[in-house]
Amino acid sequence: MSAYPFRNALILGAALAGLHGAAASAATPVTVVLGYVPDVESFGAYYAKAKGYFTEEGLDVTLIPAGTGIDQVQMVDSGQATIGIGGPEQVLAAVDKGVKLKVFASEFQTSPVSMTCRKDANVAKPADLKGKRLGVKQNAELFAKLFLSKNGVSMSDVTPTTIGGSDISLIIAGKIDCMITTFAFNEPALIEQAGVPVNVLRLGDYGLNAQTDSYFVKGDWYADAANQATLVKYMKAEGKAWDEFFKDPAGLSKWFVDQAFNDGLNVEQQQFQGTTQVKYMADAVTADKGIFWVNPKTWVETAENTVATGAAKAVPDLTALLTDDIMEKASLAKH
Predict the structure, then answer these.
(1) CA 204 to CA 76: how far, in whole Å?
(2) What are the residues facing 312 on neighbouring strands?
(3) Does pLDDT of 23 surpass 80?
(4) DSSP type of residue 334
(5) In CA terms, which of 72, 175, 255, 329 is 20 to 30 Å from 136?
(6) Cα 284 from chain centroid?
(7) Element (H, E) at 40
(8) CA distance 188 to 203
């Protein structure tokens, strides 16, 4: 037996601590710039980080919320972020300008982008808009015109009013009948909380579908097999979190609010969003292949619409832009 048992124990403890520190430092850093401010739309990333799922996969994940001045494509292209989460139209417009990106996962199978109408306006389909007062968000005019033209309605058939990006006061006050664009599980819940029942028309059901909140990386970075392995680990961890969310969206939406990732969240709205958004995240494809699957058919539709709005000049080579390799290997839960 050693004459210095305590000294040996200290040496052993220091050695083990050093090994632990080395293991921790070996974790692969991944920076993710989100598509929106922290709410249940990005539940999976926050839950996976809080519960240690990323750590279990050997990843050290940093989350950057979206906000004013945040450009997900620019951050990924410049190397400030590993993974960007954003709208496919944003990705397609950047690719059209020569930015090399790779899309490997998509949260939503049906776009939650929608038009919200007062129920008493009796608008159940686009044709019912004729003669109605339509509030159009400042950055959605081209999108609104495309939606109307695809469905046999012109801007001259409605009375348009430009509205602010988060302004729901006019529809609550009855000064407009409908507003475009909205998120199916955001503004509608807040409007109904104010005592105004609504109808929600999903634009994806009327020729404007898109895989909102698509995950992308820099094309050159993706070419490295080791980086592809990192993405598989990332999606396994986030997918594990989302699988739990699907089983209890109301409860875990409340968990998200309770964690105060964003102090401005409304519990009722977040629970409505959570229980509603899972319906937009799942379809026949995810039931067969797993959640977050990239659907090329939807991307063709989105690319054609992006060209129609003038945001891109041509439909890109989608086989070069999209990949199902990561989701195939991550093998997420089927819902």
Answers:
(1) 27
(2) none
(3) no
(4) P
(5) 72
(6) 19
(7) none
(8) 14
Measured between alpha carbons, how far is 79 from 189 in angstroms, rounded to an integer? 37
Contacts of 270 by beta carbon, 8 Å cutoff, 6+ apart: 39, 40, 253, 254, 256, 257
Q: Please count the residues of the chain.
A: 335
The DSSP code for 124 is: S
Q: Rg of the chain's alpha carbons, rounded to an integer?
A: 23
Nearest to 321 by CA among 105, 106, 101, 109: 101
| Interatomic CA distance for residues 234 and 219, integer angstroms | 17
Question: Cα 334 to the chain's mean position, in Å?
Answer: 18
User: Hey, which bits of 138-184 come out as E strands?
Assistant: 159-163, 178-183
Q: What backbone phi and psi angles, to 5 degrees, belong to 268?
A: -65, -45
Residues 222 and 270: their CA atoms lie apart, in Å, by 34
Q: Which residues contact 317 (CB under 8 A, 6 or more apart)?
A: none
Residue located via tokens 């048992």: 5
User: pLDDT, tens digit, for every residue of 159-183?
Assistant: 999 999 889 999 999 999 999 999 9
Q: Decide if 36 contacts 5 (C-beta within 8 A).
A: no
Helical axes 225-247 vs 43-50, angle rounded to 10°: 100
Please state the φ and ψ torsions of residue 31, each to the nearest 5 degrees.
-105, 125
How far apart are alpha carbons 245 and 240 in whole angstroms?
9
In angstroms, the Cα distances linking 144 to 7, 112, 235, 326 are 74, 15, 34, 34
All domains of the chain in start order, with CATH: 28-110+211-330 (3.40.190.10), 113-206 (3.40.190.10)
